[in-house]
Each structure stands twice: as structure tokens, then as C-alpha cells.
Write a structure and sequence with these properties.
Helix content is about 40%, strand content about 10%. With about 160 residues, the protein is α+β, with helices and mostly antiparallel strands. The longest helix has about 30 residues, at about 105-135. It starts with a strand and ends in a 10-residue tail after the last helix.
């Protein structure tokens, strides 16, 4: 989702606007229809600077009326809207700034929460992967074929492996 942010890891202490590409491309196509890329055809010529976010392909915008010379308590995307669509911005609500804390404690807490939520899922997936490797006749469908059931009956029960491999 598009939004204003401060992310010290990627942008220092700058206020930036991270646009959702599909959303702004759609706005541009519906309101302008020039057939060009909205960033290079409209945003950059209007004075907005594109800041890459590492090597992820994501980016942010800074510029006059959007992140520079604005009241941070009353942020809108009206300046970008006017540049991209050619019509005055009519956004009647104010957006908040999402602050991303990337300090050591905050990152450790984020990783711990991620492990708490996704750790059991990763373990189940790894067990399933080991089990499927230990049963060469096993299919990936939820119900094995007749041939697979016959092979399993003749070979005995598959036992999940306990080691990695």
C-alpha cells in the first residue's frame, strides 16, 4: 500500500512517499492516457526525485509539495496526483507517517515475533519434505494412486527420516 514513511535503513531520516506501482500506474492510465511511464513522464519532470530502496526494486519519492516544504501533520498526495494525472488533487484526508524503527532491539523483537508465528509452519513443511523424500513411491496428491497404494502395501510402511538429507 502506498504511504509516507521514515525508514532509516533505506532513506536515512528523510520523509519519503512509497508509491504502490500498480495503484499509481492505474491512476495515470485512467486520467492521463499518454501511454508513457508515469514516473519518467510526469513525476520526475514535476520535480520529484526517485530514491531506490536497496536492490529490492521498490522505491520512494521525495519532492516539493509531497515530502518537502509540507506540514507533516497534514500530509496528502495532492502534489503527486496533480503531476501524474494533470488534474488538481482532491484528497480530503490526511495520511500519517509510518516510522520504521530498525534499531538492534527492534529488529531482534521483529525476528522473534516472526519466528514465533512462522517457526511452527517451517518445521511442519520441513517434516513433510523429509517424509516425502523417504517415501520414493509417494505422490504429492492428497490421495495416492492405486499403484502407489499397492507398492506401499507391499513395501511396508514408510517411516519419516529423522536426519537431514
Amino acid at each position: 500500500m502506498s504511504g509516507f514513511t521514515r525508514d532509516t535503513k533505506y532513506y536515512g531520516d528523510r520523509l519519503v512517499y512509497e508509491p504502490l506501482e500498480s495503484e499509481w500506474s492505474r491512476y495515470h492510465a485512467n486520467h492521463c492516457g499518454c501511454g508513457q511511464d508515469w514516473l519518467t513522464a510526469h513525476a520526475v519532470p514535476a520535480g520529484f526525485q526517485v530514491l531506490p530502496r536497496g536492490r529490492t526494486g521498490y522505491y520512494a519519492l521525495v519532492g516539493p509539495g509531497l515530502t518537502e516544504g509540507v506540514d507533516e501533520e497534514a500530509l496528502t498526495t495532492n502534489a503527486l496526483w496533480k503531476a501524474v494525472t494533470g488534474t488538481p488533487g482532491t484528497q480530503g484526508w490526511y495520511e500519517t507517517v509510518h516510522v520504521v524503527c530498525r534499531g538492534k532491539q527492534a529488529e531482534a523483537a521483529r525476528k522473534a515475533e516472526n519466528q514465533r508465528i512462522y517457526g511452527p509452519r517451517r518445521e511442519r513443511a520441513e517434516k513433510a519434505k523429509r517424509f516425502s523424500r523417504s517415501c520414493p513411491g509417494r505422490t504429492t496428491s492428497s490421495r495416492p494412486s492405486t499403484a502407489d497404494r499397492s507398492r506401499t502395501a507391499l513395501a511396508g510402511m514408510c517411516v519419516p527420516s529423522t536426519g537431514s538429507g
